[in-house]
């Protein structure tokens, strides 16, 4: 009985992490995931309510609707918070998965660099879109423009 039990390898044998002194980074990551998850739920449900329930539903969502919303700094900040928190929250979750399942240090490093690069690109491009969006482009058909363009 003891020989059969000793023949089964420990689940952690193939991959043993090196001990590092990273301080409380994992603890702060864990706390961030819980806090950002709660804030994201509020942001997302608020976003869905305003976009789908308060107005005329999904048929009303078009360029004019988004253009009208993004003329308000409130909605710009709302969508910016949603973008940043969702990307950082998701990236932190994928980082944890990479740490758990990538066995080789080199593979883990490459995957993390790709992850961080993708997250930064999406955050930067999304932030630029939110703050440089022009709701009243020159030469656009009048029926597609929000009402704020005619004031």
From TrEMBL:
What are the recorded Gene Ontology BP terms?
cytochrome complex assembly; tricarboxylic acid cycle
Tell me the pathway. Answer: Carbohydrate metabolism; tricarboxylic acid cycle
User: Matching CDD domains, A to Z?
Assistant: SQR_TypeA_SdhD_like
* Membrane-crossing segments per the record: 27-54, 74-92, 113-133
Indicate whether Oxidoreductase appears among the record's keywords.
Answer: no
- Lipid bilayer topology: Multi-pass membrane protein
Query: What InterPro entries does the annotation carry?
Result: SQR/QFR_C/D, Succ_DH_anchor, SuccDH_FuR_B_TM-su
Spell out the molecular function terms from Gene Ontology.
Answer: electron transfer activity; heme binding; metal ion binding
Q: Which Gene3D superfamilies match?
A: Fumarate reductase/succinate dehydrogenase, transmembrane subunit
Q: Which UniProt keywords apply?
A: Cell inner membrane, Cell membrane, Electron transport, Heme, Iron, Membrane, Metal-binding, Transmembrane, Transmembrane helix, Transport, Tricarboxylic acid cycle
The Gene Ontology CC terms held by the record are:
plasma membrane
Q: Where in the cell is it found?
A: Cell inner membrane
List, alphabetically, the Pfam families matched. Answer: Sdh_cyt (PF01127)
Q: Which cofactor names does the annotation list? A: heme
Q: What is its main location?
A: membrane
* Protein name as it appears in the record: Succinate dehydrogenase hydrophobic membrane anchor subunit
Function of the protein: Membrane-anchoring subunit of succinate dehydrogenase (SDH).
